[in-house]
Design brief:
Length: 86
Amino acid sequence: MDLLITLIIGGVIGWVASLVMKSDAQMGLIANVLIGIVGSFLGMWLAGALGFAPDGPAKYLVSLIGAMLLIAIVRALGLFGGRRGA
């Protein structure tokens, strides 16, 4: 059950991040889930490295920021096939 919840929340976070970063047209459901999950790990890792331990709703905000950062990194590497570095 935890895996299903992780996939659903990861998909929602990845989808919202792709909307904010204007890359939703280039991403599908699986990419949204992967971006959401990996971005959450990235955001939590960065928050920990900065000495911030998010709890409650702040976890979702940190996860969203991590997913947006991951989209920016992937876009800078030119992996979305769209405009490079935009």
